[in-house]
Specification:
By secondary structure, this protein is α+β, with helices and mostly antiparallel strands. It folds into 2 domains: 14-96 and 123-144, no CATH class; 161-313, Glutaredoxin, CATH 3.40.30.10. The chain contains 13 helices and 5 strands. β2, α7 and β3 form a beta-alpha-beta unit. It is globular, with a radius of gyration of 27 Å. The two termini are 18 Å apart.
């Protein structure tokens, strides 16, 4: 069980407990406020000044407690995070358990078990989410879904070797369902390509066309498959993403000339929907796999449930290699 509630944990309650006390105090102030006369109004203003001072003092105390949770962890420094991000991360460290299976919260594992590689990977993922403004409750939910995904049944996804980079026998295969007209796919492209290059010793990266409803999606996918048949898929892949803001059917056809393709033949392929059946098969495969947006990633048939960032990809690759190396389990620390 990856998520366990903590009962009577002295580290819990922090800001949420303060908010509860603050609500009670506010109710008391309002309930006993005198009638709104000049003297009554002055009394009420004084009460609220005191309330603000109390609030500031409690917030400072909460920040101090957050630092106690986050500081003193060997090799990890969270001082660059904003105070709000530190608050959320401290709550995660106090409330969530390490996925290594030890009986400690993540924060306790990091301090009492500094050699635990699982806790460190988990902490980096949590810090990345906190830095993005994600609240602690959502971070814990994201982590729970991510680690649970390792135990879910893996999908067998057919790939086209002509749309892949890396060794065919790599330990890990990453499949990206993508749409050339999707701005999110364009944003993810440099991150994924850099990750694939740097991880080429263990990773095979495969593209799976998944054109959505944009009028340029299908013509672009057709052009990419035409280029594949002429051994120039990745060249066309790059051109389509680089020219995404200016894409239209005629522009897509014209791109062929930049990589030595016959524009008349490419135009004929697009106009005749030459690859319609193949694209339909890719769409059906994606739908069966649960693809509901682009880009969607699968790592050895496991749906990627983290953000597409360098940190998240590096950590999930480490986790995946450990998982398969230990016959579908986590290595003991």
């Amino acid at each position: 069980m990856l998520y366990k509630p903590v009962v009577n944990d002295k580290n819990r309650g922090g800001l949420s407990g303060f908010r509860g006390r603050l609500g009670i105090l506010g109710a008391v102030v309002v309930a006993f406020a005198p009638p709104t006369t000049s003297s009554g109004a002055a009394h009420l203003r004084g009460a609220f000044v005191a309330l603000r001072q109390f609030s500031a003092g409690q917030a400072a105390k909460a920040d101090s407690n957050n630092l106690l949770v986050l500081n003193g962890i060997p090799g990890l420094d969270f001082s660059s995070l904003s105070s709000s991000a530190q608050r959320e991360l401290a709550n995660v460290f106090s409330d969530e358990f390490c996925y290594c299976g030890c009986p400690h919260t993540l924060g306790a594992c990091l301090k009492t078990h500094p050699t635990c590689k699982h806790a460190r990977r988990m902490a980096v993922l949590a810090a990345s989410d906190a830095a993005s403004g994600i609240p602690a409750v959502e971070i814990i939910l994201n982590l729970s879904k991510y680690y649970s995904s390792f135990r879910e049944p893996r999908l067998s996804l057919k790939v086209d070797e002509n749309l892949c980079t890396g060794k065919k026998d790599a330990k890990v295969t990453l499949v990206e369902f993508s749409d050339f007209a999707c701005p999110h796919c364009a944003a993810a492209r440099p991150i994924l390509e850099k990750f694939a290059r740097e991880s080429s010793a263990t990773l095979r990266f495969c593209f799976a066309p998944f054109p959505l409803g944009n009028p340029n999606s299908t013509p672009a996918a057709q052009a990419a498959l035409f280029a594949r048949d002429h051994h120039k898929f990745w060249e066309m892949h790059d051109l389509l993403f680089e020219n995404q803001p200016r894409l239209n059917t005629e522009q897509i056809k014209a791109l062929g000339s930049k990589i030595g393709l016959s524009v008349p033949e490419l135009s004929k392929a697009i106009d005749s929907n030459k690859y319609a059946d193949e694209l339909s098969a890719w769409k059906e495969a994606g739908n069966r796999a649960g693809v509901d947006a682009t880009p969607t990633l699968f790592i050895n048939g496991r749906k990627h449930k983290l953000s597409i960032s360098a940190e998240a990809l590096e950590r999930t690759l480490e986790d995946e290699i450990e998982w398969i190396s230990n016959k579908n389990g986590w290595a003991p620390d």
